[in-house]
Write a structure and sequence with these properties.
The chain is an alpha+beta fold. The chain has one helix and five strands, in the order E-E-E-H-E-E. Strands 1, 2, 3, 4 and 5 form a five-stranded antiparallel beta sheet that branches. A hairpin with a 5-residue loop joins strand 4 and strand 5. The longest helix is centred in the middle third of the chain and has 14 residues.
Length: about 70
């Protein structure tokens, strides 16, 4: 996908990232900017958790929410 895409859908859910590290700078993640392993982590949380919304700190140290 193009870097101009403004959102990433994981399991049909929009994902955002927080670059501030403290929940003050959320933005939609461009599809080309989210690493495959992080997508897998988020997918696992969405599928296993059965949650419509949630938040995790990825193994790369960045906060993600959906």
């Amino acid at each position: 996908m193009s870097k101009t895409t403004t959102e990433t859908l994981v399991c049909g859910t929009q994902v955002q990232e927080d670059m501030s590290g403290v929940g003050h700078c959320w933005r939609n993640v461009a599809a080309g900017d989210i690493p495959a392993n992080i997508r897998e982590e988020i997918e696992g949380e969405i599928i296993d958790g059965g949650r419509d919304t949630g938040e995790i700190v990825g193994s790369n140290g960045i906060n993600y929410r959906w």
